[in-house]
Amino acid sequence: MSRKVIILCGSPHKEGNTNTVAGWVAQGARGKGAEVEVIDAVALKYKVGGCVGCMGCQNSKEFRCVIDDEAGPIIARLPEADVLAFATPVYFYGPTAHLKRFIDRMFSLFKFSPDGKVRQAFHKTRVALIATAAGGLDDGLSLTEQLFRKIAAFSGKEMQSLLVPNAEGADKEELRRKAVAFGESLARV
Ligand SMILES: Cc1cc2nc3c(=O)[nH]c(=O)nc-3n(C[C@H](O)[C@H](O)[C@H](O)COP(=O)(O)O)c2cc1C
Questions:
Q1: Cα of 91 from ligand 1 centre, angstroms
Q2: Which domains, and CATH codes, for the chain?
């Protein structure tokens, strides 16, 4: 069976650096037989600016966000993916707010008990990161990667990342090759 890769894009620039690189990654993964779904987290219609901490998800048996908008059903099916790749430009040392408001609602895919135990909807999903930045690694890319490593730690699996520093001046052909190879590696994990 082919591997399912979901790429969740958080850049407001449809044809910007991040979506371009994410497109090459998708191409690489598809080329190795993966089923790839690219979701534009910016374009979804949200009822809220982010998680409102209502705890509706924690008080429910289901692993789903109780807020009824376009993001809710997408979040609920993320655990079907073999690979969940977040794609974001670095905005002030972290992911964009567009992506973060989606991520916070992924709280609904975990049940946190007072005794510290955590149950989760993810059983097979590996996390990956695609991040572009104008600066170098120390200008926000490394911090962004650190954040996603924390999220990925829940999966118990090593995170794969494709970091693109100095994206504005990058050699596009070299970057394309790197991104396609990264996509191919996602189809293999
Ligand atoms: C609001 C804003 C904040 C940014 N903050 C950073 C930053 O902290 N570090 C960095 O290296 N680049 C930063 N950048 C540059 C972008 O990360 C970089 O140009 C990125 O490749 C843009 O991707 P896009 O074309 O997908 O929007 C910022 C850009 C914007 C618009």
A1: 5
A2: 4-188 (3.40.50.360)
